[in-house]
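Deadline looming. Please check this record:
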Amino acid sequence: VSHSTIRGLSDRLGRHCHLLQEQLRPAACPREPIVLDGFRTFEHSQYWPMDLNLVVGQSLFVYGFNDAELRRSGTMRPKQRARRLELEKKFGRPDPQATRRQVEKLLRRIVPPGGAVVLRTDEHRAYPQSISRLKDRRFQHDRTSSKAARTTRNPLFPVNLSDMLLRHCSSNHKRETIAFSKSRQSILYRAAIWTVWRNYMKDRSENAKRGTPAMARGIL
């Protein structure tokens, strides 16, 4: 079959998984600490980086995700800087407030009005700005350096493990790959498929067989 057939089926499956996740996700405020982080990837080329913002519970249940566009940064050769300027003149410069806006939107969806939750993040400057705008919700915001050892004792372990599984299971997110996603929509569809697999099919432990995150949360 042609690659477009596979892509069409994959996109359709992604839409179904997104709907399934939203139907099964608890509408009440999470009763466990939740961890927020941005998973760095890119669409089409490395001139268009983005963050896949993930919210993961202590039970390893993925409550939700969304995307935030970023501007390419880091060391670039003069030719690369000129190319970035050329692309931004043609398509526009990414919103510098995208992370703050998208994190606020994601937390608004997961924590209902009047809810109170323990939120753990790294020291990204946009996160406190997002939380400060959600005045009808209460957050105990605990921050951990992203440079801390990524062990099971790290408060950010649930989301660090999710980041690792995303790179391990998804060829479009591997380092120096030629299988990168050509559009942001494809990234989101594949993330929805991964979320359903992670929440409702994948055991929380490779060896102990403790059940899925959804079973730990009492959803299934």
Summary: Strands lie at 34-42, 49-57, 62-69, 116-121, 138-143. Residues 18 and 192 are 5 Å apart (CA to CA). The first helix runs from residue 3 to 24.
